[in-house]
Amino acid sequence: MHIVPEAAIAGLMTRDQSFRAVEAVFASMARGSARNFPVIREALGHADALYGFKSGFDRDSLALGLKSGGFWPGNAAKGLTNHQSSIFLFDADTGQIKAVIGGNLLTALRTAAASAVSIHHLARPDAEVMAMVGAGHQATFQLRAALEQRKFRRVIAWNRSPDRLDRLAAVADEFGLPFEAVSLDRLGPEADVIITILSSFAPVLTATQIKPGTHLACMGTDTRGKQEVGTDLVSAARLFTDEVAQSVSIGECQHAVQAGLIRPEDIVPLGRVIDGGHPGRRAPEDITLFDGTGVALQDLAVAATVLERAIAEGSAIEV
Ligand code: NAD
Predict the structure, then answer these.
(1) What is the bridge-based pairing of β-strands 50-58 and 63-71?
(2) Which residue from 15, 38, 113, 218 has the fewest beta carbons nearer than 10 Å?
(3) Ligand 1 mean position to 20 CA, how many Å?
(4) What percent of the chain lies above the pLDDT cut of 70?
(5) Is residue 200 within 8 Å of residue 226, measured between CB atoms?
(6) Residue 191 pLDDT greater than 90, yes or no
(7) C-alpha span between 116 and 37 (Å, rounded)
(8) Domain(s) of CATH 3.40.50.720: residues in the chain
(9) Is the per-residue pLDDT at 133 higher than 90?
(10) What's the gap in Å between 50 CA and the centre of ligand 1?
(11) Secondary structure class of 215 (helix, strand, coil)
(12) Which ligand 1 atom is at minimum distance from the Cα of 226?
């Protein structure tokens, strides 16, 4: 078996490779070739940690495995990332372990790739203003991948603590784009594309703040009870997701489903759009909303890409 440690990942994976791996696996999921298995996520009762497993299998690529890890809120004080994870890949023909791969950077890259894939397929081609809601660990990854999808001319952003917006301003600067910190009441009417990436349990954006034609990628809600946008906005939008079962149970759509405002059948797997089986956006004035809940198959797809490259370059540790 091979080991690809966390420290080696940055040199092995590009944003473009992450985009292509995630786009391909979303399409496999929509065709029914790839399946995510039920997620386990538990409070450990130790170190305030949440720990779990996400697993799945893609019959097209033969990626089989799991990501194990979770959230240790005390890690930052120890100089470590709060989110910790490792990915295990198995041989789909024999069940033997193939590899253990660091999952921290890959999680950030595959999550950024998911919102980028949604922008690529659902945002208006003439989108010019990119907006970020949230400026935590994930936000810079989401913004970099998003800015590669359209000819954006400006970046605007809001965060509960405005001092953290500097990191997003730096990313905009990397792309040579002007950056402005704005209120939520300005953000909605000015934005063409909005990524929300918050750990929030109450909506921060509602339908009245959003203009027609906007594409939203709601990426922060990945647990029962979390929420980033109002149910009025969800029910006003054309809805897309990575996986419907997760969208209605742990994703942004959970609240509108519970309130009886939408049905699971109203939510389209993004893979159907990628595969050409669904038109996606139908009119320039449509509001499109991608509910990115985060699935195991995204992790396996990027991990398989890394493993292939690490073996080819001779940097995978063989044990
Ligand atoms: P982080 O802790 O670094 O940042 C959290 C962000 O949420 C900050 O911008 C903070 O200001 C904001 N926030 C927290 N509580 C808020 C509130 N009540 N109202 C408004 N803003 C609030 O976290 P991160 O690593 O950037 O992750 C952000 C979210 O994305 C988390 O909920 C995480 O679980 C989720 N996530 C989702 C996926 C996925 O695949 N969908 C993957 C990774 C992370």
Answers:
(1) antiparallel
(2) 38
(3) 24
(4) 100
(5) yes
(6) yes
(7) 24
(8) 124-293
(9) yes
(10) 15
(11) strand
(12) 32
Instruction: Please answer whether residues 140 and 171 qualify as being in contact, where contact means their C-beta atoms are separated by less than 8 angstroms.
Output: yes
Superfamily of domain 2-107+297-318: ornithine cyclodeaminase, domain 1 (3.30.1780.10)
Ligand 1 centroid vs 200 CA: distance in angstroms? 7
At the second CATH level, the architecture of 124-293 is 3-Layer(aba) Sandwich (3.40)
Residues of the chain with CATH 3.30.1780.10: 2-107+297-318
DSSP for 255-314, please give it: HHHHTTSS-GGGEEEHHHHHTTSS----STT--EEEE----HHHHHHHHHHHHHHHHHHT
**Closest C-alpha to ligand 1, atom 1:** 136
Return the pLDDT at 211: 97
Identify the residues whose C-beta falls under 6 Å from ligand 1: 83, 107, 111, 134-139, 159-161, 197-200, 204, 219-220, 222, 226, 292-294
Bridge-based pairing state of the strands 227-229 and 215-218: unpaired
Mean pLDDT of 301-313: 97
pLDDT of residue 41: 87
Catalytic residues: 67
pLDDT of residue 21: 97
Q: Which of 77-81, 122-126, 286-290 has the lowest mean pLDDT?
A: 77-81
